[in-house]
Specification:
Layout: E1 7-12, E2 17-23, E3 29-31, E4 41-42, E5 45-49, E6 52-55, H1 59-62, E7 70-71, E8 85-87, E9 90-92, H2 94-113, E10 116-123, H3 129-141, E11 145-151, H4 152-163, E12 177-184, E13 189-196, E14 200-209, H5 214-233, H6 241-257, E15 263-270, E16 273-280, H7 281-287, H8 289-306, E17 315-319, H9 326-336, H10 349-365, H11 374-381, E18 384-386, E19 393-398, E20 406-412, E21 420-427, E22 435-442, E23 452-460, E24 471-478, E25 484-490, E26 496-501, H12 509-521, E27 523-524
Parallel strand pairs: 1-10, 6-27, 10-11, 12-17, 14-18
Antiparallel strand pairs: 1-2, 2-3, 2-4, 5-6, 5-7, 8-9, 12-13, 13-14, 15-16, 19-20, 19-22, 21-24, 22-23, 24-25, 25-26
Length: about 525
């Protein structure tokens, strides 16, 4: 891990809001406010014209701007090669738009602390390899040295335990605490079970849904409003992008208001007509009962995977702005028999934890020179974090009974503590086989088509006359930094090959450089 000159920060690159933070000289995580003095910046990009964009626009900024010029929830598309946003004759990827958000965070924070060089960026636990690598590329496009990608629930728990004064304390007994992290953000959902002592931090199990978040609650409200409007006027606001965009914004505001009071009104303006729709917490729960149940099913699955009973959970941590909904807190209390903790700021906890993780990495590599005191550095260096892989890693194999059938053979199951190394033997399936193709898959499904293809390589030049059943050894190594090394060797001839998957690497350096140049052309407000 290489550090560059400049400050080191933690960044929560969120679906709806993003936050940047760092540890101060006393070891306390501090949010770095944006230019307007706000702790969070909306993860929204408004394109005003060629080379000109606003990140986190106000309502006044958006007035008169076509809805098609505004990008929201781009995080849901990070790592998807088919996603493109077209503007001014250019096709922009999700990671490029994410880079614009990161650049805004960076330039606003630098007004407070000076040049920023290094960053830890958080991602949902359930992001796959492609999404994680795309997130790292977004940081690289904006000129950040991304020293690590950390999972959001891990970051939140790190920050919580650090601010409780427990982590890194050599004078405290090694008593274990088990924490359930319920992370419901704007666009993604994760549940993670963590067990920690003052010196060891271990993830037990995780699960989640990259396409479930507060936006889905807002969407249900908007659909309900539009259905009511259609009943009254036989006109549909969904047919006009500008009208529907305004309905969504009004429903988002009403959803937030319902976290503080029993009723909220959504005003709809379309086709020269106006309608007010009243919402209550009870109505919202009726409209979204299936969404809430999905989160509870996932929570129970994580507890079962870790073999932990709800009563054994010491604390429930709420992360993500959507956990402010009263229905979420009620159901979690029913499940675990205890109310969720209210010590964390759901919007800032992840960034604070990322700042703690960044400081731990920096303390281990930067020697004694630091703006933080020696006592803080000793605490940081004494913390050992053990993470798990969110997705299984497998290899594509051929069914020896039916050579036309191929399936995903799991090498490293999900929720395996990292680092891990696994070695298994396979056999050739046809006589006189002259090459072996190795395909690395990510996912739990047996069907390869339902998995993400991570990478592949070939062992060529096998000796002639190789019989069916010749042994082939395959080894997977997965380290705590997200690097995956895969080796394969045909044991009769000794011929082998290998591949390394390094987060942040890109197959097309020219494309990345082109996006760097394009980013430099944009003025970000």
């Amino acid at each position: 891990m290489q550090f560059v000159s400049g400050e080191t920060v933690g960044i929560d690159l969120g679906t709806t809001f993003s936050v940047i933070a760092r540890l101060d000289a006393m070891g306390t995580p501090r949010t770095l406010p944006n230019r307007r003095g706000e702790p969070t910046t909306a993860s929204v990009v408004l394109f005003k014209g060629p080379g000109e964009a606003i990140v986190g626009p106000t309502a006044e900024d958006r007035a008169g701007i076509p809805a098609d010029n505004v990008v929201t929830a781009v995080k849901r598309h990070v790592g998807d090669p088919s996603y493109r946003f077209e503007f001014a004759g250019r096709r922009l990827t999700a990671e490029f738009i994410s880079a614009m958000i990161l650049r805004k965070l960076k330039q606003d924070a630098e007004r407070h602390i000076g040049p920023i060089g290094n960053a830890v960026i958080t991602v949902p636990y359930y992001f796959n390899d492609a999404s994680r690598r795309a997130t790292q590329r977004a940081g690289q496009i904006t000129g950040l040295n991304v020293i690590d990608i950390i999972n959001e629930p891990t970051a939140a728990t790190l920050g919580h335990a650090w601010q409780r004064g427990e982590l890194g304390r050599l004078d405290l007994p090694e008593d274990e605490r088990t924490v359930l992290v319920f992370d419901l953000g704007g666009g993604t959902f994760d549940v993670t079970l963590v067990r920690y002592t003052p010196r060891r931090f271990r993830v037990l199990a995780t699960d989640g849904d990259v396409l479930l978040g507060g936006l889905d609650w807002t969407q249900r409200m908007a659909e309900y409003c539009c259905d009511r409007f259609c009943e009254w006027f036989a006109a549909d606001p969904r047919e006009d992008p500008q009208s529907f965009s305004e309905v969504l914004r009004a429903c988002e505001a009403a959803k937030r208001a319902l976290s503080r009071r029993p009723r909220a009104i959504v005003s709809i303006h379309h086709d020269g007509r106006n309608v007010d729709v009243e919402f209550t917490d009870e109505l919202l729960q009726q409209l979204t009962a299936d969404l809430l149940q999905r989160t509870l099913d996932t929570t129970e699955r994580v507890l079962e995977t870790a073999d932990v009973r709800p009563a054994e959970v010491h604390e429930i941590l709420l992360v993500g702005g959507s956990t402010r909904m009263p229905m979420v807190r009620r159901k979690l209390q029913e499940l675990c028999g205890r109310p969720p903790a209210t010590t964390l700021d759901p919007d800032q906890a992840v960034a604070h934890g990322a700042a703690v993780h960044a400081a731990i990495l920096e303390a281990r590599t930067q020697g004694t020179e630091s703006r933080m005191g020696q006592a803080v550095l000793r605490r940081l260096r004494s913390v050992h974090v053990t993470d798990v892989n969110a997705h299984a890693l497998g290899v594509l194999v051929t069914d020896p009974q039916d050579l036309r059938r191929k399936f995903n053979h799991i090498m490293i199951p999900a929720n395996t503590p990292l680092p891990v190394s696994v070695r298994q033997r396979f056999v050739t399936t046809v006589p006189n086989q002259r090459r072996i193709d190795v395909h690395v898959l990510e996912g739990e499904a047996r069907d390869p088509g339902a998995c993400h293809h991570v990478t592949g390589f070939r062992i060529a030049g096998l000796p002639p006359g190789l019989p069916i059943g010749a042994p082939v050894e395959v080894e997977y190594r997965y380290d705590e930094n997200g690097r995956i090394d895969v080796r394969a060797r045909e044991l009769t001839s000794g011929r082998g090959a290998s591949v390394a998957v390094i987060r942040g690497a890109t197959a097309d350096a020219d494309v990345e450089e082109a996006f760097r140049r394009l980013a430099a052309e944009y003025t970000i407000e």
